[in-house]
Specification:
The chain has 300 residues and is of the alpha/beta class. The chain has one domain: NAD(P)-binding Rossmann-like Domain (Rossmann fold, 3-Layer(aba) Sandwich), CATH 3.40.50.720. It contains nine helices and seven strands. Strands 3-2-1-4-5-6-7 form a seven-stranded parallel beta sheet, sandwiched between helices. It binds nicotinamide-adenine-dinucleotide and 2-acetamido-2-deoxy-beta-D-glucopyranose.
């Protein structure tokens, strides 16, 4: 088609998507049924991962729960069984590729093909960049992003073969907007958002439209992950509340899920406002959390 013809087509598509979004505001989208599906959640021994495991258990899913914390993940599994579903707990260190590959092999052999993969395990180290231990920087990248590659390599092939499945990337508000004293954390979460977006395009290019992708970007969660978080415009939410909002997005195949929804507006403003304006918005929001500063100006 000639470019001059394609431009009006482009505007029509944009108009159509706005109208579609408007209609969807009033007509709730039907949630998909995931009953009986195998759901694997990493880092499900505590916090948001655990709360999401309970949500999937209420949908009658079979759960495969991974965490480095044995007691935590076994407790989650126990509660899922109490909710009436089968749940398998595995102790897996997601910072270790070999651990992930061998656990994945076990899951495939003993339980079956994973339908829904949720990469949720995450670590954080709130301190200035120069005082962040090399080890801690490496760990944040291993758990918060590299692990997503190893689990995808393990479970995506079957999903693609069957053109069925769902990959859920738990990123963060910090994958779109940044904060001081979270440099390595934010950059690892930006990478997770990038992985989600590029993978989504790649699956579409390969015509694997049956494999869905969702990226979950919460603001602060009261899970003790970040200590004493506060934000004026988006106060911290309980893990259960975040899980319930995330679930609605997952079951309607939403691609980018901001929690709370207002976060989307602040992300857009952050991009759109002039630098000074964006800074003023930040000031207004009064973001706070505990961090340490180890950096000192040296004499020489
Ligand atoms: N808490 C927040 O304010 C917040 C905000 C946005 C995004 N997130 C993201 O949500 C996800 C869950 O965080 P949360 O708030 O529930 O934290 P959490 O600390 O309550 O839970 C994280 C879980 O991951 C597990 N884990 C840590 N390292 C692991 C490893 N190497 N291998 C396997 N498991 C490991 C922990 O044992 C824990 O059970 C993380 O990816 C986090 O970055 C959290
Ligand atoms: C979500 O994706 C599944 C699998 O492709 C599909 O069956 C379902 O209809 C979709 N639901 C929505 C609301 O798009």
């Amino acid at each position: 088609m000639h470019l001059l013809l394609e431009i009006p087509v482009f505007f029509l598509v944009v108009l159509y998507s706005y109208l579609e979004a408007l209609v969807k505001l009033f007509i709730p989208v039907k949630e998909k049924c995931v009953s009986g599906q195998i759901v694997l959640i990493t880092g499900s021994g505590h916090g948001f991962g655990r709360a999401t495991a309970y949500e999937f258990a209420r949908c009658q899913c079979k759960l495969v729960l991974w965490d480095i914390n044995k007691n935590g993940v076994e407790e989650t599994a126990e509660e899922c069984r109490r909710l009436g579903v089968t749940a398998h707990a595995f102790v897996v260190d997601c910072s270790k590729k070999e651990d992930i590959y061998s656990a994945a092999e076990k899951v495939r052999k003993e339980i079956g093909d994973v339908d829904i993969l949720m990469n949720n395990a995450g670590v954080i180290s709130p301190t200035d960049v120069l005082s962040t231990e090399d080890q801690a920087i490496q760990k944040m990248f291993e758990v918060n992003i590299l692990a997503h590659y190893w689990t995808a390599k393990a479970f995506l092939p079957t999903m693609m073969k069957n053109n069925h499945g769902h990959i859920i990337t738990v990123a963060s508000a910090g994958g779109h907007i940044v904060a001081p004293f979270l440099v390595a954390y934010c950059s690892s979460k930006f990478a997770a958002v990038g992985l989600h977006r590029a993978l989504t395009e790649e699956l579409s290019a390969l015509k694997k439209d049956g494999v869905k992708t969702s990226c979950i970007c919460p603001m602060f969660i009261n899970s003790d992950f970040v200590k004493n978080p506060s934000s004026r415009l988006m106060p911290p939410l309980e893990p259960e509340e975040v899980a319930s909002q995330a679930m609605k997005g997952i079951l309607t195949n939403e691609s980018m899920i901001f929690i709370p929804r207002f976060l989307k507006v602040s992300v857009m403003l952050d991009r759109f406002l002039p630098t000074r304006g964006a800074k003023a918005l930040w000031k207004l929001n009064k973001l706070k959390f505990d961090f340490t500063i180890g950096y000192k100006d040296k004499e020489n």
